[in-house]
Amino acid sequence: MLSVNTPTSSPDLQNLSARDKAVIWHPFTQMQTAPLPIPIVRGEGSVLYDADNRAYLDMISSWWVTIHGHAHPYIAQRISEQLKTLEHVIFAGFTHQPAVELAERLLTILPENQAKIFYSDNGSTAVEVALKMAFQYWHNLGRPRKKVVALDGAYHGDTFGAMAVGGRSAFTAPFTPFLFDVTYLPAPVAGQEDATLKLARELFTDDVAAFIVEPLVQGSGGMVMYEPTVLDELFRLARANDSLIIADEVMTGFGRTGKLFASYYLSEQPDLICLSKGLTGGTMALGVTACTQAIYDAFLSDDKLKTLFHGHSFTANPLACTAALASMDLLLSEETQASIQRISERHARFANRIQGRPTVNNVRQRGTLLAFDLNAGEQTSYFNSIRDRAYNFLLERGVLMRPLGNVLYLMPPYCTTDEQLQYAYDQVEQLLDSL
Ligand SMILES: *Cc1c(COP(=O)(O)O)cnc(C)c1O
């Protein structure tokens, strides 16, 4: 039998980087200057192994998705069973067990005002669906609203609608003319709360269709963190004008912030919630947009034009839904919940340890996510050279971290052991010494 998991240095694998270069265009990569990609052969827990059997500690959960570690045997077994039963079926006019069970179980763990689950493929599509639901909600009610309020520095995905509601940056510059207008509030970080709330009182008028936000942590914008109290206040201002509130929990969902969802830090509840990334434990691509009964009801009509005309070929793919169910079993287990606490506590201790170091600024933490700014006397920017230095320094020591500009963060899979965490912390400290 052919084993795909045997570590080997066969010429084919050695060659993979060069073959890749000949035919592949990578995401977020300047192909002219980027080094050849590292061929990864297998993964186990928090560790990835390359073609030479070199180990990399995945401290970013492979772009924030791999919450239970790589190639988890339980998720693999569940998907494999599903694969032999039903791999896919059209999701209009048909349904299946994994989709129904996942929706039922998601609704038991999401905030209690959530009533319906709409499936798509990824985080960006989950956001697109939320935006379309919000705009068409107002359209269907016969009171169209066009305005959207978002936060400066927000990231909601790379498709056009998702880009439009994200902060404008070098990444969106070529597309600016094609993005619909959005009104921005400054992120309500410590010290900025009053300024944000003051502006919010002016901006939240009765023509705002939706307020979209990454609750408590703005991920791609640089792990910018702020407090639940001010977000609750923003939610109340939006709600005073009936504006719909979209919580983009694509990154914060499924335990990352220490609670199942960041929304659980709040007293106010969002109307729509976007999920992806950790949803399937990082195994399959799946997106979810959850909404309230009131939103769902606004689409019910004898008039077919009130239908939500949106869908994707792989909507509610049974393998992806099964992966999500298996991931949820693991997530809700006592063992994983204890690990989330354990990692959060260790992060807090490490945060204390590096706080006050001259090469570190703004140490911040929410649950299993720890972030800080590297300070080497340069301006903060994604394109900072300190970013490449830090990335390479850590990679050479077998730690995969991917700074956002000068923002370094640890977002480990929950199965990461204390020893692995300590190893990563030690390498980070050596990096700080070297700056
Ligand atoms: C990653 C991310 C997205 C986009 O998800 P994709 O699956 O990459 O399309 C949207 N919102 C937030 C908050 C994210 O972190």
Automatic annotation (TrEMBL):
PANTHER family recorded for this chain?
ADENOSYLMETHIONINE-8-AMINO-7-OXONONANOATE AMINOTRANSFERASE
Where, per UniProt, does this protein localize? Cytoplasm
| Record Gene3D superfamilies | Aspartate Aminotransferase, domain 1, Type I PLP-dependent aspartate aminotransferase-like (Major domain)
Alphabetical GO CC annotations of the entry are: cytoplasm
- Can you name the source organism? Spirosoma taeanense
Keywords from the UniProt entry: Aminotransferase, Biotin biosynthesis, Cytoplasm, Pyridoxal phosphate, S-adenosyl-L-methionine, Transferase
Q: What is this protein called?
A: Adenosylmethionine-8-amino-7-oxononanoate aminotransferase
Reactions mediated catalytically:
(8S)-8-amino-7-oxononanoate + S-adenosyl-L-methionine = S-adenosyl-4-methylsulfanyl-2-oxobutanoate + (7R,8S)-7,8-diammoniononanoate
Q: Which InterPro entries match?
A: Aminotrans_3, Aminotrans_3_PPA_site, BioA, PyrdxlP-dep_Trfase, PyrdxlP-dep_Trfase_major, PyrdxlP-dep_Trfase_small
Q: How does it assemble?
A: Homodimer.
Q: Which gene codes for it?
A: bioA
Q: Is S-adenosyl-L-methionine one of the keywords? A: yes
NCBIfam families annotated for this entry? Answer: bioA, PRK05964.1
Keyword Nucleus found: no
Major localisation: cytoplasm
SUPFAM superfamilies, sorted:
PLP-dependent transferases (SSF53383)
**Pfam families in the record, alphabetically?**
Aminotran_3
Query: Family per UniProt?
Result: Belongs to the class-III pyridoxal-phosphate-dependent aminotransferase family. BioA subfamily.
Cofactor (UniProt) = pyridoxal 5'-phosphate
Per the UniProt record, the site (Participates in the substrate recognition with KAPA and in a stacking interaction with the adenine ring of SAM) maps to: 28
Query: In Gene Ontology terms, what is one molecular function of this protein?
Result: adenosylmethionine-8-amino-7-oxononanoate transaminase activity
Amino-acid positions noted as binding pyridoxal 5'-phosphate in the UniProt annotation, renumbered to this chain: 123-124, 248, 312-313
Pathway the protein acts in: Cofactor biosynthesis; biotin biosynthesis; 7,8-diaminononanoate from 8-amino-7-oxononanoate (SAM route): step 1/1
* Primary role: Catalyzes the transfer of the alpha-amino group from S-adenosyl-L-methionine (SAM) to 7-keto-8-aminopelargonic acid (KAPA) to form 7,8-diaminopelargonic acid (DAPA). It is the only aminotransferase known to utilize SAM as an amino donor.
